[in-house]
Structures are given as C-alpha cells and as structure tokens.
Amino acid sequence: MSEPATEHVSVMPDEIVHWVGEIRPRTIVDGTYGGGGHTRLLLDVLADDDDDSAGSPHSTGSLIIGMDRDPAVIRRDDRPDALGGDRRVELFLGSYEKSPAALAHCGRTHADALVLDLGLSSDQLNDRERGFSFTIEDAELDLRFDPESGMPAYQWLAYTDETDIANAIYQFGEERYSRRIARQICLRSKQREPVRTVGDLVEICRRCVPRSKNHDIHPATRTFQALRIAVNDELAILQRTLATAADWIAPGGRIAAISFHSLEDRIVKNAFREDPRWEVLTKKPLRPTDAEVQANPRSRSAKLRVAQRTALPSS
C-alpha cells in the first residue's frame, strides 16, 4: 500500500530559496526532508552541472540529499513518480546528524548548504498512530519520529522515575507545573493504570496546569513538546550536528535553520556565534510574513537564522 500524499506546507520557503540560492550551491543537504517542499523549490537554485564557477570543488554533479528519520517519508517519496525519483535527489533514512555519511555515500566530502526545518510536519501531526497531536486522544502515546527504533513515550514514562520525568518536562517544555504532572503520571503507574494514550496524558495536564487568563495555549502543549524532545533526543542531535557542521560545509557554504521554540533557537544562535568558522548573516532571526502566517498558521512561531562558512581552516 502506497503512502498518502503529503499535507505538509513548508515554512518560510521564499526566505530559504533566497539565502541558499545566493551561493549557487552544487550540493545541498535538506536535513529535515519531510514533505519535500523545500527540496522541490531548491532544485531551481542548484548550480548547473556545467557551471564550473559554482559550488564546492569537493562535489561532482548537482545534488540535493534529503535526510529524514521517518520511514513513512522515505516510502512515500522514494518512487520513480515522486520527487525522490529525480536524479538530482537522493533520499536517506536517518537523522541529519548522519549527513557526512550520506555525503560520503554520494561520493562527496562537503556540502554547500544545510537546510534544517526543525518543526513537526503536518503529516506527523495527522498520523493517528504516532500520538503527536493531543487532539487525537485515543492514539497511543508514541511520539517517535522513527517508530521502528527507540522507546515510545508511554514506555519511557513507565521506566523513568518521577524526578527525571519532572526534570525533562521542565527542561524541554519549560513547564512550570512539571513536578505536579510527573507526580500524577507516576501515581497512575502505582495504581496499575499507567499512561498509555494521548488522552491519558492530556487528562493529567488538564488537571495539573491552570488555564492562563492571557494565553490560549493548550495545557498539554509544553508537556507533549518535552516528551517528544526527550524520546527523540532532538536537542542533543541538534547540538552535535551544529558543533561539527563546519567540518563538512565547504567554505562559502551556508546553514539555514528554522526553529519553532526558544530551546532550539538558542542552540542555533549560540552555535553560530561561538564558532569562528561561521559568519552570522542574520543578526536577528527572520520571521514569517503576515501573509504566510495567515495562509499557514503553523508558521507563526518560526525563526530563521542563517550563517556562512568562513575560509578559516577546520580545527
């Protein structure tokens, strides 16, 4: 059975095309391929194969390498009639942290650009079997990007002690009521009614998190974000990737990273500022236009930062 067509709308597409297209890249890594929206647009700004003045001297033919941890993405697009069938696109199942291995597989040592769109895709939110959306309350609380590896969130909650659960919810979700939530999660386990579904966790969050008078955020939002980050090791992967990216981005190459919450944005900002091999091109993060937010409300919290690899030697 074929995978359904993507419903995801890529965020800040014009800005990504502008900042990446300026350097006429020959090799691009789309580290969060998702629905392929950014890749589809970036094909138009790839250097021509006969353009000797463009791209990295380490590359050969023009290519976009699409990385994604979600097997459903690869199954959907790695078909002759889909974008993955384009000779200029190679798809790989795995985290963007594995970009150097994907580059090596394609016979090249460096990329000219790395694009990261760190948010959840609409396809994942709408997948009833993943539990990413707290509106689908009968779904199993999985929260993994790759459901074929690792531990689903409901198991993580069952095997993790109360203090560590509370710390994760506070650190990764910035949730003030993390201890109260963790206490109720563990109490259910002691009563032999462990949290298993989205609805189980939503019920706890509704009881533990008072409704804000000045904000309409759902009481489960921060907790779901925190558990998703913990289960998928998202922030550590982002930190490790940005710490080593200058080793495999060619001089003059760029990283364009879109984040959706302060934890991700802080990691990107600090990585660019603290490594002298990066020149920050966006002194302040770029935000989506009002028109884009109106057309795609999920873009409203997006922040784009761009940095360019300097000519300094790798350390």
Automatic annotation (TrEMBL):
Give the reaction(s) catalysed: cytidine(1402) in 16S rRNA + S-adenosyl-L-methionine = N(4)-methylcytidine(1402) in 16S rRNA + S-adenosyl-L-homocysteine + H(+)
Q: Which UniProt keywords apply?
A: Cytoplasm, Methyltransferase, rRNA processing, S-adenosyl-L-methionine, Transferase
Please state the Enzyme Commission number of this protein.
Answer: 2.1.1.199
Q: Name one GO cellular component term.
A: cytoplasm
Please, one GO biological process term? rRNA base methylation
Principal location: cytoplasm
Task: Name the residues that bind S-adenosyl-L-methionine.
Answer: G36, G37, H38, D68, Y96, D117, Q124
Give an example GO molecular function: rRNA (cytosine-N4-)-methyltransferase activity
Listed Gene3D superfamilies? Putative methyltransferase TM0872, insert domain, Vaccinia Virus protein VP39
The organism's lineage is: Bacteria, Pseudomonadati, Planctomycetota, Planctomycetia, Pirellulales
Transferase in keyword set:
yes
Any single Pfam family the record assigns to this protein: Methyltransf_5
Q: Region annotation Disordered: residue ranges?
A: 289-315
HAMAP family registered for this protein in UniProt: 16SrRNA_methyltr_H (MF_01007)
**The protein's name in its UniProt record:** Ribosomal RNA small subunit methyltransferase H
What is the annotated localization of this protein?
Cytoplasm
State the species of origin. Answer: Neorhodopirellula pilleata
Summary of the function given for this chain in its UniProt record: Specifically methylates the N4 position of cytidine in position 1402 (C1402) of 16S rRNA.
Protein family (similarity comment)? Belongs to the methyltransferase superfamily. RsmH family.
